[in-house]
Fold this sequence. Notes:
The chain is an alpha+beta fold.
Amino acid sequence: MTTVTDIDARGTRHCETTASGVLLRHQGLDLSEPMLFGLGSGLSFVYWDSKNMGFPFLGGRVKPFELTRNLAARLDLELVVRETTSPRRGWENVVAAIDAGRPVGLQLDSYHLDYFTSKVHFGGHIVAMYGYDDQDAYLVDTDQQGGAVSTSLAGLARARAARGPMSARHRSFTLTAPRGLPSLRSQVVDAITACADAFLHPPIANLGHRGIEKAGKLVRGWLQRTDDPRRDLPRAALLMEKAGTGGALFRNLYRDFLAECAPLLDSGHLRTGHGLYAEAALLWTEVAALITKAGESGDERCLAQAGTVLGELSRIEREAMRALSRLER
């Protein structure tokens, strides 16, 4: 058995920040999960639906791995990414890092991991790997998936080779922290304003505040969008609250990030944004509860109410991001 020593296998709530946290703590850099999420400008929104999808999806963050790239750029981390179409070369890339005493991040399809009880394909899942033997790989995943876990090498190989939406070609990566970190104050301002700009000026109507407004209109017809509302609507709500989002479609994480920034920035704009995201987090949880209730009861009034709340959320988050976009170093 080969393992990296001194691993802090602290499971947190979101997969990508869990993995980056493991890699950075091994480098001696210990940042909270909300801080990692915020510095990576992770917050977003997407209403995703297409002909080949069984049911619409509401997403609350940037696309997979963009958060890690943003985080590396903000903190001047050395990010080394390896991708290949060859399973053999992909495995060699992983074991080379671990044999050298470094944990490595992996992007894969969680469906094939032995410890996942919810068998849904998701090619954007990210874990940290810190060891292996002849049969198993040793990983750190989110708290809800067990934190320090193991999966068979065969299952890991299938997960890394999977193709589909958001998947990557045997992607592995390492992070190296510099000796001296840049000013956290200036970096959080850059992260917040970049996130606000993307949210306020989305290129298409499915993203950002425009996407939330669109969701508010379309969610009202979700009972007609499925032949099994008791399955699909509660599942959609569960993904908003429990599927590594930290609750409230990542708004809890962003609220906590803004609160953690308060000692660094004496700003009324920051306080306004934090207050509005605290309000938004509660409303997102209310939306999830209404969608669940609609699926279980078949009552369209629940979806009408959810649509109204989403319309209010579009306004609240737009106001929050406008305030946050005005932050100055």
